C-alpha cells in the first residue's frame, strides 16, 4: 500500500464529556467513523484495538483534527439543547448491507423529537416483518447519537434496547422531549 492509501486509513480520535458520560469519537479522512459510549480507559482501549484491526494502523489521539473539533462542537450544542441535527461527514465503512440501509434511513428520516418503531423502520427499507433485523442493526450502529438509534422504539410503547444502556436511551429521549426528564 502506498503512503496515500495509508493516509486514507488514518484514524484520529478524541473523548468529549457529555451529559450521558464520556463519548469517544473517531474519524477518518472521510468523516466520523465511530462514537463509543461510556469511554472509560478500558472501553476506549477495546474500541481503539478494533479500529486498529479494521483500518490497519493504530488510531492517533488528535482532538484538534478539524472533523473532531466540529463533531465535539455539534455534540456540545446538541446536549445544550441548541442543535437538533448533525451536519457532519460520516464514514460508513464500519457497517454495510442491510444494516447500512437501515441506519441511513434512520439518519435521514427520523427527525429530532420523534420516534419510529422497529417494524416501521424495517418497512421503510423494504423489509416488512424485519423488526428483529432492525434491532440488530441498531445494536451494530457505529455512530450512536449522531445516527439516532435511540429514536427507535417498540411498537407497544416500550423503549426497546440500547447499546449505551437503557438509562442513556431515556436521557437522550428526554433531551429531545420524547420522554419526561428523569427526576434525579
Automatic annotation (TrEMBL):
Pfam families attached here?
Answer: DNA_binding_1 (PF01035), Methyltransf_1N (PF02870)
What miscellaneous comment appears in this entry?
This enzyme catalyzes only one turnover and therefore is not strictly catalytic. According to one definition, an enzyme is a biocatalyst that acts repeatedly and over many reaction cycles.
Q: Which residues form the signal peptide?
A: none
Q: What class of enzyme is it?
A: transferase
**Cofactors, names only:** Zn(2+)
Q: What does this protein do?
A: Involved in the cellular defense against the biological effects of O6-methylguanine (O6-MeG) and O4-methylthymine (O4-MeT) in DNA. Repairs the methylated nucleobase in DNA by stoichiometrically transferring the methyl group to a cysteine residue in the enzyme. This is a suicide reaction: the enzyme is irreversibly inactivated.
* Domain annotation Methylguanine DNA methyltransferase ribonuclease-like: ranges: 11-91
Return the protein name: Methylated-DNA--protein-cysteine methyltransferase
Amino acid at each position: 500500500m502506498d503512503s496515500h492509501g495509508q493516509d486514507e486509513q488514518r484514524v484520529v480520535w478524541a473523548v468529549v464529556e457529555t451529559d450521558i458520560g464520556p463519548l469517544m469519537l473517531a474519524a477518518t479522512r472521510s468523516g466520523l467513523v465511530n462514537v463509543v459510549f461510556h469511554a472509560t480507559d478500558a472501553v476506549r482501549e477495546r474500541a481503539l484495538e478494533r479500529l486498529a484491526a479494521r483500518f490497519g494502523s493504530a488510531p492517533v489521539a488528535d482532538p484538534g483534527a478539524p472533523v473532531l473539533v466540529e463533531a465535539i462542537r455539534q455534540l456540545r450544542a446538541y446536549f445544550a439543547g441548541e442543535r437538533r441535527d448533525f451536519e457532519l461527514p460520516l464514514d460508513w465503512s464500519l457497517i454495510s448491507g442491510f444494516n447500512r440501509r437501515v441506519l441511513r434511513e434512520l439518519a435521514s428520516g427520523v427527525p429530532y423529537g420523534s420516534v419510529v418503531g422497529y417494524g416501521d423502520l424495517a418497512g421503510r427499507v423494504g423489509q416488512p416483518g424485519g423488526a428483529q433485523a432492525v434491532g440488530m442493526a441498531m445494536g451494530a450502529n457505529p455512530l450512536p447519537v449522531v445516527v439516532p438509534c435511540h429514536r427507535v422504539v417498540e411498537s407497544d410503547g416500550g423503549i426497546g434496547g440500547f447499546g449505551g444502556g437503557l438509562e442513556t436511551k431515556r436521557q437522550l429521549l428526554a433531551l429531545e422531549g420524547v420522554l419526561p426528564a428523569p427526576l434525579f
